[in-house]
Each structure stands twice: as C-alpha cells, then as structure tokens.
Amino acid sequence: MLRCGRHTFDLARPLVMGIVNVTPDSFSDGGRYLDAARALAQARRLRDDGADLVDVGGESTRPGATPVAEADELARVIPLVETLAAEGVAVAVDTRKPAVMRAAIAAGASMINDIGALAAPGAMEAVAASDVGVCLMHMRGEPRTMQKAPAYGDVVAEVRDFLAARAQACVAAGIARERIAIDPGFGFGKTLAHNLELLHSLGTLAATGYPVLAGLSRKSSLGELTGRSVDDRLPASLAAALAAVARGAAIVRVHDVRETVDALAVWSAVERGAR
Ligand code: 7PJ
Fold first, then answer.
1. What atom of ligand 1 comes closest to residue 60's alpha carbon?
2. Which atom of ligand 1 is nearest to the CA of 135?
C-alpha cells in the first residue's frame, strides 16, 4: 500500500503518474491564464486516460534549467492543485520548496514529489506535519550543472544507500513508511551508462521495501539509444516503462498516460497468465 492523504493505492498493480508541466508563456500578458487553462485541460485528460496520480510541476528541472522564484511557482501550481483536488484527483506536486509544499498540501495535494529528496531546510517537517505521500528522488548536483561529467564508484549502491538513508530520516521525522516512495532519478546527474545500470538493477532499489518510482518518459537517454528527437520517443518510453515495471517499479511517471496504461494492461495480463 502507498498512503497519500485521502488516497490509498494498492501496489499489487503498477501505478501510472501523468506529467503536467505548468510552464510560462512569456510573450503574452494573458500567458498565465492561458497556461493555467491548458494545464488544467491536460491534467483532466490524463485523469480520463487512467492516470492514478497527476504530477504538477511549476519549476523546470531539465538539464541546464535555472531556478524559478517561489511566488511564480506558487502562482503557477496552487490554483491547479485546488481545482484538481476538488475534483477528486490524486495530485502530486513536483517541488523542492517548503513553502510550495505547505501551500500545495493545504490546497489538497496528495503527494510531494521532490527531486531533492526533502533536502531543503523545513521540507521534511512540512511533509511530516501532513498525511500526504512523498517521493524521494536521487539527484547528483543541481539541474543547471548536473550533466557535466557525473561520476560514481558503484552507481546502484550509491543511489540505493542515499535513498535508504533519506527514507530512514523521513521515518525518524514521523513520516510513516507507507507514505514513502523512492526514485533513482534517471538523468539527474547520470550518464546513459549510469541510467542503464540503474534500470537494469532496479530490483536492488525495490529490495529496500519502498515502492520505486521510475521516470524515463521521453528522456534524453532514450534519444541516445534510438536516435529519436523528444517528440518521437513514445515507443522507447513505453519499452522503458515496461522494463522498469518488470524489474520492480511500482509507479511509472509518464507523459503518455493512455498508451502506457494500454501497454501495462497487456504486460500485467501476461504476468498473471489470465485476463
Ligand atoms: C523526474 C521527476 C523523475 C521524479 C522530472 C523530466 C524531467 N520527478 N521530475 N522522477 N523527472 N520523481 O520529466 O524529463 O524522473 S522533470
């Protein structure tokens, strides 16, 4: 089970988290409203397509991205969380900022998805003071510079030990084990070789006992493997999602929810050996 506020998920079948980015349209004064309306429509579509969780993010964390101001992130994310939560959607909020976490939880969010694994001062306390779920992700460095020659001794052991330690710190801070998921953070300070080692050995992370979330959708590693541009990585993303689930991932974070749900329906039926 994974407990996320008023939503409790049975992990007997893999969960799908759909991605909604609330990104600014800077060349228009009406940008903020239009962006919000577009993000809401996208979130509803992902829900209708079968997403178990919708992940809302107001800060770009792609390699090379620069940080966003707290007020901007709040303005982008919170109205969307309020609307979706009121519609009964399980909303995850992708943020590293404690103030955004607190506002998101007050607005009805069910999960905090932190690429910084609650490292910011006050972040762990913000989650502990609530009953929402949390995804702890591993990242080496910072988005602006993280792809500049990341190096590890044993990437799988280092990522596992980091995540296990962060999860343990969360439990010590009063966050129940059933509220915690862990994520190796594909592409966050990792080369293609690192990502492949981590994906191949995802079972080592799953052996910690925490549900593992895998985010590979459209990522550049898939581009490196296939030679395809970001708009042309759906087949690669589906293969990556199935490979992750086959190695023990409990949750896949994807852009293409409808296609992923279909792929998982077939994969799961074969696993069961029955309809
Ligand atoms: C991830 C994420 C991921 C989690 C992003 C992108 C980059 N959160 N946020 N795991 N990736 N938990 O989607 O390409 O892999 S932003």
1. 16
2. 12
Give the chain's largest Cα–Cα span. Answer: 55
Q: How far is the CA of 34 from the centre of ligand 1 (A)?
A: 24
Token reading at 100: 């955004």
- Report mean pLDDT in 10-residue bins for the chain, 275 residues: 98 97 65 80 97 93 82 93 98 97 98 98 98 98 83 97 98 98 97 98 98 98 98 98 98 98 97 93
Enzyme catalytic residues: 219, 253
Q: Is 114 in the pocket of ligand 1 (CB under 6 A)?
A: no
* Residue-wise pLDDT tens digits, 96-124: 999 999 999 999 999 999 999 999 999 99
User: Letter for the amino acid at 219?
Assistant: K
Under 8 Å between Cβ of 116 and 138: no
Please give the pLDDT value at position 25.
Answer: 58
**238: buried, middle or exposed (CB in 10 Å: 19+, 13-18, 0-12)?**
buried
Establish how many alpha carbons lie within 13 A of residue 117's alpha carbon, considering only the half-sphere containing its beta carbon.
26
CA distances from 21 to 18, 106, 152 (A): 10, 20, 30
What pLDDT is attached to residue 30? 55
The CA angle 50-85-17, to the nearest 5 degrees, is: 35
What span, in angstroms and rounded, lies between the C-alpha atoms of 219 and 186? 8
Q: How far apart are CA 199 and CA 195, in angstroms?
A: 6
pTM: 0.96
Give the residue, by CA position, lying nearest to ligand 1 atom 11: 215
Protein residue whose Cα sits closest to atom 3 of ligand 1: 215
